Amino acid sequence: MRAHSSGSGDGPTGVLQRAALILDAFEGVARLNLSQIVAATGLPLSSVHRALEQMVALRWVHRHRMDYQLGMRMIELGSMAAQQNSLRRAALPSLHWLHRATGCIVHLGVLEGTDVIYLEKIGGDLAPGVRSRVGSRLRADSSTIGKALLAGAGCSRISSPDIDRVRELRVACEHEKCMKGFSCVAVPIGPMGRGEAAAVSVFGSVAKIGVDQRIRLSVQTAAAEIWRRMQVPSSDVSGRRSAR
Fold first, then answer.
1. Which residues are in the IclR-ED domain (predicted)?
2. Helix/strand/coil (H/E/C) assignment for every residue in 4-37
3. Does domain 85-237 correspond to CATH entry 3.40.50.1980?
């Protein structure tokens, strides 16, 4: 997402617009130097340098020698936003249960436009070996969890043989699509209503997911439990059993 220019100038003129462009440049990368940020944003070098100095002072960005990375304040705010997300809060007990039950990496994702955004990732020692991360996004039609999301979005115009099959079976399962030797099973959560879509998935070895039908059942159980938990007021959640 890029900030839009206000007025008829050649580029963003507002302080917040420039800051938004600079922050967007860090999506998917850990560190950037000044030249890389200038190239990514299209802003003048002097404007980028001045904005970065202000952002460093605010702890939005951290400078390490010649490189910049997102600062602690942005990490703190991102963590607070994730903690406040009602879907994530409702899902966490079931996600942890699903990880324990399957031994697989577990993802919680939502649909934004045509992209998947990961709200949570639980995987223990396995997690660092898989590139997905909380807050990252990818094209929905290129992933198993994305196909589950598209199938659960409740929009009849989203149609393909793969999506139609997932919509019928309420489960998506693919082998070795994104990593050799690994499979993914994803199930829509919902219906969420208001055009929203959410899904939960497990990612593990073909040898495990391909032969153990209980894994598919476990994902379906977790998705159903998350949806049920979303239907009650937050004050009543503690009174309901979590997935065991």
1. 73-243
2. CCCCCCCCCCCHHHHHHHHHHCCCCCCCEEHHHH
3. no
Q: At what angle do helices 86-102 and 213-230 cross, to 10 degrees?
A: 160
Q: How far is CA 226 from CA 105, 138, 221, in A?
A: 17, 23, 9
> Within its chain, how far is the Cα of 56 from the centroid?
26
Tokens 């045509």, located at residue: 114
Dihedral sign (CA 114, 218, 126, 180): negative
pLDDT tens by residue, 63-78: 999 999 999 888 777 7
Per-residue pLDDT tens over the stretch 2-57: 444 333 344 545 788 889 999 989 987 889 999 999 999 999 999 999 999 999 99
The one-letter amino acid code at 18 reads R
CATH fold of 15-76, please? Answer: Arc Repressor Mutant, subunit A (1.10.10)
